[in-house]
């Protein structure tokens, strides 16, 4: 838009040609745009970017030793209005070159002054203190011209081949070399020990490996031997198991055959034997009954025969007495007593015969019972 200006983020816009509102000779605009009346107003831009200046200065120490010191300064224009006005009044026409030159001159002067108050040993050993003192001494002057220093770094310090710094460094270098040699020797020793330890571990590993391999081979051989022995044993056990199964099968078949024989032969034979025994017992019982009946019949017949012949026996006995020389003292009464005695004797003989027949019948019964027991057996 005509007459409207916007500064870059790293710029400050300076507007001149109008009355100042304060002590500032011109207006400063940072971070936003502004409409500026053409012809009557003039716009300029001041950089706020970082700038760098390098210095190389020969300085004399407090010992009178000449040193060549190299350093670098990082700086920029400060952001406050006073610093912007001061920087614009001094560097607006030639911003980067004039800023770097002037900054280098300011730092070079302070650097020579501070180096002159220090020894070479202090400068070498306390380089940061030197940088801090130079930066501190330069801040006031840099602020007066509107510049802000971000950093000041000393890059190198050289005695221009005088050998002083090298001489200062010689003991340290010797100590460093000595320490390096000691460290190298220790490292070599440690490396040798490590190598020996590695060799020892390698030998131990090989020995353990050989032992493990031998143990493995031994275990393998034993397992193979056991396997080779186990196969015939397993085969024998298998054959034994087969034989045992065959034996159990034979026993089972024998049991089945026994049951079959029992059902087909023994049971019918036992049944036939029982039938024969029952028939024999029945026959024996029948014979016994018949014998007992015959014995009873013979006894009765004998009794009847004796009874029928008893009178004849008595008559014969009496007849015998008639021819005998027998004296009867008591007459008829004595004769009667004699006859009565004969009859009594006849009855006694009859009883004796009966007992004899009864004993024979009992013996026959015993023989019949013994015969029956033999049949049962």
Task: Write the CATH fold name of the domain at 4-160.
Answer: Tetrahydropterin Synthase, Chain A
Largest sheet: 3 strands, antiparallel
Name the beta content range.
Answer: 5-15%
Structural class by helix and strand composition: alpha+beta
What is the number of beta strands? 8
CA gyration radius, whole angstroms: 82 Å
Query: What is the string of helix and strand elements?
Result: EEEEEEEHHHHEHH
CATH C-level label of the domain at 4-160: Alpha Beta
Mean pLDDT, all residues: 77
Strand order of the largest sheet: 3-2-5
Query: CATH superfamily membership of the domain at 4-160, which one?
Result: Band 7 domain
- What is the CA-CA span between the terminal residues? 155 Å
Q: What is the helix tally?
A: 6
Verbal overview:
With 377 residues, the protein is an alpha+beta fold. It has a domain of 157 residues: Tetrahydropterin Synthase, Chain A, CATH 3.30.479. It is 69% helix and 14% strand. It contains 6 helices and 8 strands. A 3-stranded antiparallel sheet has the order 3-2-5, with helices on one face. It has a 3-stranded antiparallel sheet with strand order 6-7-8. A hairpin with a 5-residue loop joins strand 6 and strand 7. The protein is elongated and about 215 Å long.
